[in-house]
């Protein structure tokens, strides 16, 4: 009887214990307190540098958030994207999704330099990416979350992975969903994470086909609101001006909110990959409506999906390394 009572008491105490925001990975755990003893000022340093960068250029918040996404979808969240070409390494920065568009690398260099002075060879570039993405979201008015930490950096890159794994702005819905599912993400994650397009810009080259030749028949995309399309054509001609920038959410382009989803309901999503969330799948259409109606619901799911995305195949324990310079592997 005494043993049974003891067992029940233990169960009761376990039920009251706080849940740990720990994510099990192959060979180890990611958890928010990873640097509490080895580099207690790590998160403060990242936030400070990101805040200065975003104050100088508000667009930088979206750029840093995008880098985390483009890193995690190739070989996992291992900072492979940050490597420059060297020796046998061909940089992922040269891939179609990244060339002439991925940016913010100098901000990450600044963060890494500050962290190396504070606590040398301790904080990984992969964790810097994850923290910078969270801080960029918060600084622009979005939700916050505790970032599970403990990732290590890869010693290689994958140009082919970058070309093949990252959804293109003109992909069909099922193609995009398949690429998300291959990373362990579902349709809810797809719609919520697409909401990051509430901040930032896109180039004319990324959506031109919607204005002139959506399906190869010489006709524009009729799911794009026509007066909005006419406005876009004034700065995005049939040829040339590829690098001209346009707000992804023209209503509140520097504020992280749910206007992106309201834009989709008005058929004013800039990219084809945005608008098809409303037009090509019933479940994603319902999620778009819910997030457009309820900003808090969107924020809650975005935070959950960012944590989930940040747990894609991280290197932990003895795998990988802690790079001293995010642009190149360590030399021993």
UniProtKB/TrEMBL annotation:
Q: What is its main location?
A: secreted
Q: Please give the InterPro entries that the UniProt record associates with this protein.
A: Haem_peroxidase, Haem_peroxidase_sf, Peroxidase_pln, Peroxidases_AS, Peroxidases_heam-ligand_BS, Secretory_peroxidase
Kindly indicate whether the keyword Cell cycle belongs to this entry: no
Print the keywords alphabetically: Calcium, Disulfide bond, Glycoprotein, Heme, Hydrogen peroxide, Iron, Metal-binding, Oxidoreductase, Peroxidase, Secreted, Signal
Q: Record-annotated residues binding Ca(2+) 2?
A: 198, 249, 257
Which region is the signal sequence? 1-22
- EC no. given is 1.11.1.7
Which locations, inside or outside the cell, does it occupy? Answer: Secreted
Q: Where does the Plant heme peroxidase family profile domain lie?
A: 29-330
Example of a GO cellular component annotation carried by this entry:
extracellular region
**GO molecular function, one example?**
lactoperoxidase activity
Family, similarity comment:
Belongs to the peroxidase family. Ascorbate peroxidase subfamily.
| Protein name, entry field | Peroxidase
